[in-house]
Amino acid sequence: MSADDDIKKSADLKDAIAALADIFIGRIPTTLSTMESELDAIIHNSKDHNAWKNLHRQLHTLAGTAGTFGHEELGDRARELEDRINTMLKTDTVSDEPLKSEFMHDQRIFMVWVDSEFVKKA
Amino acid sequence: MAAALSKILYVEDDTDIQSVGKIALEMVGGFTLRNCSSGKEALDPQSIAFAPDLFLLDVMMPEMDGPTTLAKLREFPELTNTPVIFMTAKVQASEVAFYNSLGAIGVIAKPFDPMQLAGQIRQLWNDRK
């Protein structure tokens, strides 16, 4: 295979990934809306482990996908929140009021940031 | 000399990541892929008949995680010795040691670089014992 072929392949791959990244960004409002629903469920009942797990899943997916598309800060911030839920579930502290409040506060700050960086700017 | 790597059974539940992995491995690596979105799909007859040279498994998936999927794939006699690479965000030494204890020839950290993925896999394949 020639160097020209390699360059062409690389360019094609970058174009394809850029197109997928646009689709990913376009789905962020839906992701935020889903997260909001899970937060509402948690506010209603902090022992709703399904809501915690669903929110964890959303953050996990967002973290992995964002990083793959080169949005490192988005990926890192989602990963940090994902890890906190993981710890709270493992230590059965999802109902611990100070911990839960702090998490909810940080989760909302994160969502506002995501909205301003990836939705309003798009 | 290591046998050539051609067919990869790729199991990843996130559709965006799966799409990136697919184009990276097919376009750059020239591999033939069978993509599955769950462990259950990896165990269907068509996936088994695909007779992959390599399993590429996401670790954290709902319902059936990567290690569980591997254990079930190993129940098929023709897949007992198929090499496996795990993909995960959790790449601390203890976690990598666990995946190695399951027989993994390597672990690729997520998020991965699409431009490097095929090369990373080929390197792990060539370096396997």
The tally of strands of chain B reads: 5
Instruction: Report the structural category of chain B.
Output: alpha/beta
* CATH fold field value of chain A: Four Helix Bundle (Hemerythrin (Met), subunit A)
For CATH, the homologous superfamily of chain B is named as Response regulator
Low-confidence stretches of chain A are: none
Shape of chain B: globular
CATH topology heading of chain B: Rossmann fold
Distance between the termini of chain A: 39 Å
Q: What would you say the CATH architecture of chain B is?
A: 3-Layer(aba) Sandwich
Q: How would you state the average pLDDT of chain A, rounded?
A: 92
Radius of gyration of chain B using CA atoms only: 13 Å
The average pLDDT of chain B is: 94
Given helix and strand content, the structural type of chain A is mainly alpha
How much helix is in the residues of chain B?
A: 40-55%
Distance between the amino and carboxyl termini of chain B: 11 Å
Order of strands in the sheet with the most strands of chain B?
Answer: 2-1-3-4-5
- As for the number of domains of chain A, it is 1
Explain what you see.
- The complex is a heterodimer of chains A (122) and B (129).
- With 122 residues, chain A is mainly alpha-helical.
- Chain A has a single domain, classed as Four Helix Bundle (Hemerythrin (Met), subunit A), CATH 1.20.120.
- In chain A, 84% of the residues lie in helices and 0% in strands.
- Chain A contains 5 helices and no strands.
- In chain A, helix 2 (28-44) runs antiparallel to helix 5 (97-119).
- The longest helix of chain A is centred in the N-terminal third of the chain and has 24 residues, at 3-26.
- The N and C termini of chain A lie far apart (39 Å).
- The mean pLDDT of chain A is 92.
- With 129 residues, chain B is α/β, with parallel strands linked by helices.
- Chain B has one domain: 3-Layer(aba) Sandwich (Rossmann fold).
- Chain B has 6 helices and 5 strands.
- In chain B, strands 2-1-3-4-5 form a 5-stranded parallel β-sheet, sandwiched between helices.
- In chain B, strand 4 (84-88), helix 5 (93-101) and strand 5 form a beta-alpha-beta unit.
- In chain B, helix 1 crosses helix 6 (114-127).
- The longest helix of chain B has 14 residues, at 15-28.
- Chain B starts with 6 loop residues before the first strand and ends with a helix.
- The interface between A and B is medium-sized, with 22 and 17 residues.
